Amino acid sequence: MTGTSAPEYTPAHAPATLRNRAPLLAVLRRFLPAEGLLLEIASGTGEHAAYMAPQLPGLEWQPTDYSPDALADIDAHARASGCARIRPALRLDVTADPWPVTRADAIFCCNMIHIAPWEAAEGLFAGAARLLPTGAPLVLYGPYRREGRHTAESNAAFDASLQARDPRWGVRCLEGEVVPLATRSGFRLEEIAVMPANNLTLLFRRV
């Protein structure tokens, strides 16, 4: 009797990663240390790790996500990349204390704090303060309001759609919300990189 093999697992794909991964990598090359452990928060499908980790040879990449269902996707993309420096994905709830990772040399978080309650942003900075040494980077990517205003009509529409899904979500104000939280948590904003599609990459340093 001839057996049949199980169908190959097809991980989820996020189309936005194809558009933003190259510009993000260019910025991360400047912001991240040459070596050490990079903790990625809210890895999603894991496609950023699969694309970037092979091109950042000094870094071990630890992907994480709040959703248990995402972990298989992250690991599948990591295997397909062939990069042995991507560690098995871990479930991480940023509002929890402690986290399943106890130290890191850098933290990267893409497109999370606007698609989550504000408590997630608070947990992110609190956890980063516990893990990162002085001078280490915390890098955030996504859309932000500046001085209370949206930077584009498309961001205003996106914000409205987020709040329609969950009133606790929304595009955060950089100066009015994110920077004050960072300062209270022991971080300073060092650089703002303007990105395609009306997004920003923010470099915070642990002080």
TrEMBL record:
Keywords: Methyltransferase, Transferase. It holds the Pfam family DUF938. Transmembrane segments: none annotated. One of its GO terms (molecular function) is methyltransferase activity. GO terms for biological process: methylation. The keyword ATP-binding does not apply. PANTHER family: UPF0585 PROTEIN CG18661. This is SAM-dependent methyltransferase.
